[in-house]
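Morning!

This is the sequence you dropped in the shared folder:
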Amino acid sequence: MRSIRTKDGRRRPLRATLALVASLAVAAGGLTIGTIAAGNDGSESASAAVAANFDPGYIISDANFYNGSAMSATSVQSFLNSVAPNCKQQSGGPVCLKNFVQSMSAIPAVSGRCAAIAAGSKSAATMIAQVGAACGISQKVLLVLLQKEQGIVTTNAPTNYMYLHATGFACPDTAPCDPKYFGFGQQVYAAALQFKRYQASPTSWAYQAGRNNSILYNPNAACGRKTVYIQNAATAGLYIYTPYTPNTAAMANLYGTGDSCSAYGNRNFWRMYTDWFGSPTGGSSPIGFVDAQSGAAGGTISVRGWTADPDTTAPIKAQFYVDGVGKASVLADATRADLAGQLGANNTAHGFQTTLTGIAPGSHNVCVFGINVGPGANTLLNCGDVTVPSSAPVGSLDTVTGGQGTIAVSGWALDRDSSAATAYKVQVDGVGAIAATADVQRADIAAKYPGASSTVGFSKTVQNVAAGTRTVSLWTQDRPGSVWVKVAQKATTVTAKTGATGAPRGSFESATGGAGTVALKGWAIDPDTYASVLYKIHVDGVGAAAGTANAARSDVATAYPKWGSAHGLATTLTGIAPGKHTVTVWWQDLPSGTYVSAGTKTVTVGTPPSSGATGGSGPVTGAFEQATGGAGTVAITGWAIDPDRYDPVLYKIHVDGVGAAAGTANAARSDIASSHPGWGSDVGLATTLTGIAPGTHTVTVWYQDLPSGTYVSFGTKSVTVTATSSTSTGKTGAVYGAYDGVTGGRGTARVTGWAIDPDTFAPVKYKIHVDGVGATAGSADTVRTDVEKVHPGWGSDVGLDVSLTGLTAGKHTVRVWYQELPGGVYKDFGTKTVTVS
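The structure's back. Tokens below.
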């Protein structure tokens, strides 16, 4: 053990650590309490250590060093949780410091040094807190000592060596460690006791407060010494424990290494203390306590407590983190009468109570900080795990009104575990009648369930309901799963439809073009019902709007008094591109539910002041029913309907994630025509893929959704394909080439590359996807003489050079696929990101 001769000639053992490796020189990683970065979440920040503030003669104040009540066991545990949140026990290694527990024997009192400590099984946090309290050494000092000596506080992979030599006590630089002091608890206590010895006999050691001291830069005496006037007992104790002062090189690279004569122990102590707890010699940091924190159904966490800064009587902020991410910041200004005894009768406005919203169900780590003002640093008040329980869906059928063959329903549905607009279903007598997503904002529900979505309302009419008493039920999904739960149910009486029958009567009267708009007028009644008639509007053959023709028309009421006036069509389409367009209006005919054309008009639209977009009347619906493998083949069946148009839906088919076929779902399906009247029977998908290699494959079917033109996946199925009778495909090699690049322009992107297939001299076919959706396809036949020189024999018409147009401004991903013969599958040649202006 290294020793140093004292003033009276006696020899005293001491620790002379250098922290010689760079990893310990910068080992203050993890969450540094004093330097939480400010961000968009409103979190506060404090400054990191600055070398110019280091005074080698006044490293830490006596008040801060000898404060045995600086941190409770709970505070120490919270600190350990926060600085190494990702630490996990390694295979064959010890547990993390935040989880460490040791059985300790009773420690008797040492007169004038440390009080007695009872025996027991204790966590690391408890040992640090009890030793600090018993010996009058700040728990903050002990935490910093553990970090500077072994890096054990922030490490994600602790070792047995770290625990055996935790504070470096009795481990000199020039001799083996004394096994008498091995063990975490023993090391913490021995170090604290040693510092008290230094304090109790200040003139017995080579380094003393109140005088100049000649201190080595390094164990190598050739590196020289520095004269340091040590101002106080705490700083003297640090130099006795670690008898070196940092040189200019060590301070010039405060968070790194200096030169061969640098030593880092006392520099690191000052720097780590500053980063974690604020200035070692400055003002006070916030104090406080978290009284309670609990999770509740609906995605909320409630936190209650208090925090104050001893440097001011003004309220300070409390900052809340959930799973390491800043969640909220509130001013702790609530009056807490119970604080009068601790802070003074006129200084009690320091309480806080807040509810954090939008928290997913499950276990979360919640940390609370008191935000420092003036000298000092932010204080971690508590870190603890809180469980937020899942919430059962809720909802209401506010109105259920039976009519002539109809039921009007309105209400709301909500899954409190999701912030997305609510998906809901309405059933009549147990049979599905409506499946949609809520589209009505309900501020009253949002106020009742904070943090959940406010788009939870709906108002719909169920058509073609048989007369009699009907039971209407409301269902919504229980997130994060997919189970549908019934949340409300009511009964209503439906009457028979009117005696009149026949097709809708009415008129599509006018279509008037404006600046990016088309104003429509008309009217309609249906002899089969007194209810207002539903309509759909197509612009250039694509669905643009849908609704109910219920505008007031007194002239219609005069002509058809039984039906009243609520049968007018008066709506304006917006976001229509400039130029000529055809506009078609369709009326719904009951009881079939099919739509009947009321005619088409041509209209000219002017340039709008700003661009807009037409809206469809619903997403594409359908099914991917079956994929059946054969000898080199896959037979695929399904169906699709797009509420935005009556034309058959386009489809695409991928095999193993690569485009294999595309076409129109127009096969006859009388069963679908029966269940979905109005779209006819030409809605089926029935096709057989050929040339499929033997083995197991995944098949995905996509249907196009208008008016956006995007393709929506309708699922993936696994299928096994057997070998064909042929034993040879004649294939001589895989397609090869390159996806050279993509360059963005104003609404455009230019894609370049080349491809050669050894199985054919014809140009290779390509497909291009933008943001995962097919954008264009063709043949790579652009002249590329550079490729021909490298690959003679296939000619120069092997290039890909295509411009994609109509792209929205922003970033897009562009993927290129080349077809490989003879199988016909497309091979992925990668994705690139492009910015379009």
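Headline: The radius of gyration is 39 Å.

More detail when I'm at my desk.
O.
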